[in-house]
Automatic annotation (TrEMBL):
<keyword id="KW-0238">DNA-binding</keyword>
<dbReference type="GO" id="GO:0006355">
    <property type="term" value="P:regulation of DNA-templated transcription"/>
</dbReference>
<feature type="domain" description="HTH luxR-type">
    <location>
        <begin position="135"/>
        <end position="200"/>
    </location>
</feature>
<keyword id="KW-0902">Two-component regulatory system</keyword>
<keyword id="KW-0805">Transcription regulation</keyword>
<keyword id="KW-0597">Phosphoprotein</keyword>
<dbReference type="InterPro" id="IPR000792">
    <property type="entry name" value="Tscrpt_reg_LuxR_C"/>
</dbReference>
<dbReference type="InterPro" id="IPR001789">
    <property type="entry name" value="Sig_transdc_resp-reg_receiver"/>
</dbReference>
<dbReference type="InterPro" id="IPR016032">
    <property type="entry name" value="Sig_transdc_resp-reg_C-effctor"/>
</dbReference>
<keyword id="KW-0804">Transcription</keyword>
<dbReference type="Pfam" id="PF00196">
    <property type="entry name" value="GerE"/>
</dbReference>
<dbReference type="InterPro" id="IPR011006">
    <property type="entry name" value="CheY-like_superfamily"/>
</dbReference>
<feature type="domain" description="Response regulatory">
    <location>
        <begin position="6"/>
        <end position="119"/>
    </location>
</feature>
<dbReference type="GO" id="GO:0000160">
    <property type="term" value="P:phosphorelay signal transduction system"/>
</dbReference>
<feature type="modified residue" description="4-aspartylphosphate">
    <location>
        <position position="54"/>
    </location>
</feature>
<protein>
    <submittedName>
        <fullName>Response regulator FixJ</fullName>
    </submittedName>
</protein>
<dbReference type="InterPro" id="IPR036388">
    <property type="entry name" value="WH-like_DNA-bd_sf"/>
</dbReference>
Length: 203
């Protein structure tokens, strides 16, 4: 994934693209313009930031663009622009996972507020992904026995029960538990469990 956070504007209307580019740039938000959904999909493997797209475009419309993004596992926040008559299409886009939709003509500040919210959502999502990736690396460093102890701890079992389940002494469980806490960089059992559950949800 590119680390460059941008607002990608996808619209077949040059005047609209230029107008939105000026508006975003005037607010200090980096922007990249694409004249079609196919151009965006072909040039951006996975983007950081958010996407603004018209719901009605030739060949690949906004709803189909969303479907293709989600099909390739891209969770990029998407804002759909729509005319009044196209609200049903915008609702369909929301069902496909659009972050928001805005009816034209829209107030500049309403548009910028939606973009800022989408960028914030994308930023938080990227931070969660990075945290989960780091936790997965820590889990990968655990030995088979340490993984067993981790699973038992996440299941809420006390040391004596874990010892019985694994056929080892409570003292040995304590040693493995300390190793697990150290490798996972967890300051408490609650922190350890939260980290393990985060990876489970992410899997």
């Amino acid at each position: 994934m590119s680390g460059e956070v941008l607002v990608h504007v996808v619209d077949d209307d040059l005047a609209v693209r230029q107008s939105l580019a000026f508006l975003l740039a005037s607010d200090g938000i980096p922007v990249r313009l694409h004249d079609s959904a196919a151009a965006f999909l072909g040039s951006v493997a996975q983007a950081a930031g958010c996407l603004v797209t018209d719901v009605r475009m030739p060949r690949i419309d906004g709803v189909e663009l969303l479907r293709r993004l989600r099909a390739r596992g891209d969770a990029l926040p998407v804002i759909v622009m729509t005319g009044h008559a196209d609200v049903p299409l915008a609702v369909a886009a929301m069902r496909e996972g659009a972050f928001d939709f805005i009816e034209k003509p829209f107030d500049d500040e309403v548009f910028l507020a939606a973009v800022r919210a989408a960028l914030d959502r994308g930023r938080r999502s990227a931070e969660r992904d990075a945290a989960a990736a780091e936790i997965r690396q820590r889990v990968a460093s655990l030995s088979e026995r340490e993984l067993q102890v981790l699973d038992e701890l996440v299941a809420g079992k006390p040391n004596k029960v874990i010892a019985k389940d694994l056929g080892i002494s409570p003292r040995t469980v304590e040693i493995y538990r300390a190793n697990v806490m150290a490798k996972m960089q967890a300051g408490s059992l609650a922190e350890l469990v939260r980290a393990a559950l985060m990876v489970e949800r992410d899997a």
